[in-house]
Known about the structure:
The structure holds three protein chains of three kinds.
Chain A: H1 2-20, H2 22-43, H3 47-52, H4 54-79, H5 82-88, H6 93-123, H7 131-157, H8 162-173, H9 175-190, H10 197-223
Helix pairs in contact in A: 1-6, 2-4, 2-6, 4-6, 4-7, 4-8, 4-9, 6-7, 6-10, 7-8, 7-9, 7-10, 9-10
Chain B: H1 3-26, H2 40-67, H3 70-102, H4 110-130, H5 135-165, H6 178-214
Helix pairs in contact in B: 1-6, 2-3, 2-5, 2-6, 3-4, 3-5, 3-6, 4-5
Chain C: H1 9-39
Amino acid sequence: xxxxxxxxxxxxxxxLLQWRTRSRFASVLAFGVTTLLLFSFAVGPDTTVLRTxxxxxxxxxxxxxxxxxxxxxxxxxxxxxxxDTLRLLPADPxxxxxxxxxxxxxxxxxxxxxxxxxxxxxxxxxxxxxxxxLLGLVLLGTAGLTAPGTMYAALxxxxxxxxxxxxxxxxxLLVPALVAAVKATGLVLEGDPMDQLGGWTGxxxxxxxxxxxxxGLLYRAVIEx
Amino acid sequence: MNRVDLALAAASVVLLGYGTWNGLVVAPxxxxxxxxxxxMYVHVPTAWNAMLCFTYAFVFAVASLLTRRPxxxxxxxxxxxxxxxxxxxxxxQGSIWARPTWGVWWDWDPRLTSVAVMNVMFIxxxxxxxxxxxxxxxxxxxxxxxxxxxxxxxxxxMSVRWWRTLHQPPREAGGVDPAMLLPMWxxxxxxxxxxxxxxxxxxxxxxxxxxxxxxxxxLP
Amino acid sequence: MSGVIQGGWGYVAGAYGITAGVLLLYVxxxxxxxxxxxxxx
Lengths: 225, 220, 41
């Protein structure tokens, strides 16, 4: 399928760009770790409290770090006027969106996974329901973050005060995904005696379906002139 | 202000006047909540009309994206602003209601919390509009943001409702005395006329702003 | 359930007052904007 091949090409391009600026990724990761540390200092050294809310701190750290990563993903295009060039290519805007979003997903998921050992160490958590489920949730949660995040990053990159605009637009929109991801991750870490995991995962999945579809459809309106 | 505007204004003043008087003086106090329950005669109308405005904003946003006509953008700009105004009022009213009722200024009621999140999303749309100088980009991008925000509302509601019931049992919604329904519905319709009037006036302001934006600069 | 909540009129006045006040201010603001924009060249 031609569209799929083009999409993979776009993803490859973005991943290559990210690889070339991998020192930036390291800095964003360091930012994430620092955020996790700050939560500990803000909340206090009570291990019980930290352990209970560990999944909340993790997802907040991922969320905050993601604004840096997402805005960076469009900086190169905007700086070099490449947005117009990309638009003039005979490629469907959907291909541009999904390609970019997939690249962002891979790097944000990598970021979140790399934060996991720090979470385990700082907040003394165990992964009661297994690493497989935890990793799956991390992927699903970052996917929920990436879909509207890529959309708003494209939009904010071309507006003024883009550094404020991206979190202002993105964060309230992510409330359902944040609630579901934090709850589900918490259950995976501490156990799920009342069998609620399916429900929260379902909500997170629904969020993903809605926004991955909708953003793909609307991307044309964002990048065209 | 043309004839339709005056008619809307007159109708809303009459209805809101009567409904408020009825609600404050004639209607009985609630069995448990006493006179505090009278807040509902302004709270429920505000809720209905805020949600209606946000729905208008969504419809106008879709129309704007499909037709690219500025008229839809003006209407959307108006609906977003009036909706946000009503949404903020709704949140404040909800807080005033919560304090004597539940003893706290905010009790994470799913509906009110959803409105609070919606308010922030629509503040974001307004901020976006202020940071984009080109009118056609502004129309397209804020329409996209409005669509994404509106679609989010049921998701927010579901997540907050479930999140909260895990910690507290759901509150029962009692039945409403029929004598209380009359002032409530009168005010709903009265506020509806006012809301429509406000959106019409604000649309005109939007159109005038755009015209001023596009007008050539004055000669010295 | 405890007894009837007493003295709620303060809260009622607050809710109605803020709502009416803000809406009134908004109407005035809109009206002012329309009048001045009508005069601009």
